Amino acid sequence: MNRRLTFKSSAFPKYPNEDEETVNENCWGKRLAEWVRDNLPRFDIGTEDILCEDWGWLVSLKNDDFPLWVGCGVVEEEGDDGTGEVEFGLFVAAEPGFLKRLFKKVDTAPAVARVEAALEKLVASSDQIRDVSWE
Predict the structure, then answer these.
(1) What φ, ψ does residue 53 adopt, rounded to 5°?
(2) How far is CA 112 from the centre of its chain?
């Protein structure tokens, strides 16, 4: 089961035309995905492309052993508190291929933990993010 890092921020508003790129309504977060892609390398995590998925945005990570990525998206849109803040979520996923798993045990936990630690540092480095927690 993936853990999810949630937080509130007004720093990643929806692009005016982002709905045209998304598969489902309210599954936006492209600015957040771009921020993750552009800033994770500061914490020694290499990044590649971002992709739109039916649940939000995916940031591909450089990893030789198996596909590794960060999911980014909206947990809850702007609340009634008038701050303009949105609750966002980030999670890390590792997907070793079937053949790799068939022929040997693939321990993805160290890679996932390294990315989770980097995400936590990244989020903590921004003064525009608050109410950070792991679920």
Answers:
(1) -120, 175
(2) 12
Decide if 9 contacts 125 (C-beta within 8 A).
Answer: no
Task: Name residue 132's amino acid.
Answer: V
State yes or no: pLDDT of 80 exceeds 60.
Answer: no
What are the CA-CA distances from residue 18 to residues 58, 74, 129 (Å)?
15, 13, 22
Q: What is the pLDDT of residue 21?
A: 86
Q: Once rounded to an integer, what is the mean pLDDT over residues 89-97?
A: 90
Q: What is the DSSP letter of 41?
A: G
Phi (first) and psi of residue 127, to 5 degrees: -85, 0
Share of the chain above pLDDT 90, in %: 73
Average pLDDT over residues 114-135: 97
Please report, as a single letter, which amino acid is at residue 20: E
Q: Which residues contact 47 (CB under 8 A, 6 or more apart)?
A: 36, 37, 38, 40, 41, 59, 60, 61, 62
In the predicted structure, residue 1 carries a pLDDT above the cut 60: no
Distance CA 41, CA 102 (A): 32
